[in-house]
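Thread: "does anyone have the structure for this chain?"

Original post by V.I.:
We have the sequence but no experimental structure in hand. Need at least a predicted one for the grant figures.
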Amino acid sequence: MSDKRLVLASKNPGKIRELESLLAGVGIDLIGLEPDAPDVAETGSTFEENALIKAHAACAATGLPAMGEDSGLAVDALGGDPGIRSARWAPGSDADRMHALLRRMATVPAGQRSGRYVSCIAMVTPGGKEAVVRGELDAVIGFEPRGEGGFGYDPIFVLPDGRSVAELSMAEKNTISHRARALAKALAILPGLLEG
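Reply from O.Q.:
Generated one for you, tokens below.
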């Protein structure tokens, strides 16, 4: 075990798996929240604010440095929706939300289906240090789900090479994803935050 432990303010197994994979080999042990940990109200109006809310709550609950991540899909034709409500934009499962989005996009032509995945990572320490970084991945919204990998909206998030994010291996996704881009920025400043 590393002497640097970091609590991830999430109970989402897909997000925890992805961030654990991205943090492998950097000397930081990532700890996810227990499944019965209290939920934190995401009352912010931006990805950045919600990430900070989560990080502060996890830090206060555990006494350890914490990382909060808020992410979602912003679709231009829908005025940025589902945005910060991506995980609760429509009731039900990830598949239900994905199909709700496809229904909303049914009349949007191919040339107007642009969007981006956004990931904001906030890091806070018990000593009061904090930082927030942002990563984005642009693509288009497909017309039907493709692929078995990933989670959330990945099966309809189509990259310039024609593949959906759900058709990528975890290793491929980890080189280009919005989380990978945000985490690269976070890792550049995290050691300094964890000092002392």
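V.I.: this helps a lot. The CA atoms of residues 102 and 143 lie 7 Å apart.
O.Q.: and The longest helix spans residues 178-194.
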